[in-house]
Amino acid sequence: METIDELKLILSPEKIKERVGELGRQITADYQGKDMVVVGILKGAFIFMADLVRQIDLPFQMDFVRLQSYGAATESSGQISITKDVELSLKDKHVLVIEDIIDTGFTLKYLIEMLKLHETASVKLCCLIDKKERRKVEIDADYVGFEIERGFLVGYGLDYDEQYRQLPGIYHLSPRYEAKGFFPSDR
Ligand code: PRP
Known about the structure:
The protein has helices at residues 13-30, 46-53, 106-116; strands spanning 3-11, 36-42, 61-72, 75-84, 94-102, 122-130, 143-147, 153-154, 170-178. By secondary structure, the chain is of the alpha/beta class.
């Protein structure tokens, strides 16, 4: 029997765009005169980062890391490994890490420890969504787009089983139900 996921829009593309613009202006003001490298965490952050960097009116370099967390499909176990490292030198650079969501916090905790080994001038975090419901380790982002209490979120880079990343808004994903021609009307 055909089933489909139910998607409920919680952050519209317009709302995200407005907040990304605000974050970009704030980062532009804070990083004046600093030698900055923006580091995105693949894959989830790719859309947020693409939009955000175009709102930062400064010269800077960009790089990416990819981390793998082991565990169930929807929750990290805390066991993280790096599958793609940074390629630029981060020594004496002001590093701004771009992440789509902080959930348990394991991913960022691991990455920050790893980045400390690069003798950076500073490391700050910019996260689109800070979700504290399942937080296991203490992590505070310096720039937060939205605080969302709970729920499994997809869209704007966030996936479930590698699907939904391309949705322009952010949706709450509910358990599967029997399909009757449903399609997210706000897409
Ligand atoms: C997701 C998300 C964050 C991480 C947050 O990545 O993009 O990187 O989980 O979870 P945490 O705070 O519990 O560690 P995922 O491992 O699903 O990979 P992806 O970015 O490729 O989707």
